Amino acid sequence: IFTLWLQPDWLYKWFPQHGKLVYYCKVLHDYTDEIIEKKRKQVAEREIAKANGTTQAHQPLNFLDLLINLSGGEKGYTNMELREEVMTFIIAAMDTSAVSMGFTLMLLAKYPEAQKKVFEELDAVFGKSDRLLEKDDLPKLQYLERVIKEALRLYPSVPIIIRTTTEDVVAFKENMTLLKGSGMIVSIWGIHRNPKYWGPDAHCFDPDRFLPERIDGVPSCAFIPFSHGPRNCLGYQYAMMSMKTVLSSILRRYRVVGEPEAGPIPHIRVRMEIMLKPIDGFEVTLEER
């Protein structure tokens, strides 16, 4: 992406990176194809059992079940089409959420007071029980949600998005016209740290900036970790629920320890690849409570 001379396909094929890309794509494709084939067999067996009246207790359906069922089973999507959907979930859903949770844990390690508030909230919801989190618990974890959103604001797992104009657009106070078909890069990192939208403390860690009375005055397009509009991330709700579920499970059992920050601005050196990553890795330690 960032090496101009590797962008033309005809030239890229002559570099060793192309061979590695082909190899790793094959590994990933073989893995997803195996998952899809197993699932197709399970769906077929379930239909046979249903026709014979031998269906067992209800089993919850996952995303791949729904894709195969709603597309008409064997008459629906091809394996290649299903593969693309599965790879989207593996790459775009799992990795981005994992990175976001990593940054959230690092920030909680740097700001023990925020971590204490999260634990107090968890204690109020779960008490001393070790029961599993239920769906009805998620709306109660409001401070944890604010912490996650602040982590996504400061360290969006996808720091830029690329869009193509569908018509001529006049931008920058009419000093520039972007012609139809122009490519543009939207800096989520820059928008999320712009004092115009977030005030003079835009670089500071402050989960309470997402309190309803404070966030209401912020334009909706100023917080776009999942993009915005009709082309935004379809997994937004899923990502938030999964992150709250995993982080609550970790923080109920462990204290996250790291080097505390002396001030409100977190100092985490990052590099931008396809996703944002900390240069020094996710440096935290978990201590059992």
The termini sit apart by: 44 Å
Widest β-sheet, arrangement of strands = 1-4
CATH architecture of the largest domain, please?
Orthogonal Bundle
**Care to count the β-strands?**
8
* Fraction of helical residues: 40-55%
Shape descriptor: globular
What composes the largest sheet? 2 strands, antiparallel
Structural class by helix and strand composition: mainly alpha
- Percent strand equals 5-15%
Concise account of the structure shown:
May be involved in the metabolism of insect hormones and in the breakdown of synthetic insecticides. This protein is mostly helical. The protein has helices at 9-12, 16-51, 63-70, 79-110, 112-126, 142-154, 188-192, 195-198, 212-215, 236-253, and strands at residues 160-164, 169-171, 176-178, 183-187, 254-257, 270-272, 276-278, 285-288.
Provide a descriptive summary of the structure in words.
With 289 residues, the protein is mainly alpha-helical. It folds into two domains: 8-77; 91-288, Cytochrome p450 (Orthogonal Bundle), CATH 1.10.630. The protein has helices spanning 9-12, 16-51, 63-70, 79-110, 112-126, 142-154, 188-192, 195-198, 212-215, 236-253, and strands at 160-164, 169-171, 176-178, 183-187, 254-257, 270-272, 276-278, 285-288. The strands form four sheets. The chain has a two-stranded antiparallel sheet. A two-stranded antiparallel ribbon has the order 2-3. Strand 2 (169-171) and strand 3 (176-178) form a beta hairpin. Helix 2 (16-51) packs across helix 3, helix 2 crosses helix 4 (79-110) and helix 5 (112-126) runs antiparallel to helix 6. The mean pLDDT is 88. Keywords: Endoplasmic reticulum, Heme, Iron, Membrane, Metal-binding, Microsome, Monooxygenase, Oxidoreductase. Its cofactor is heme.
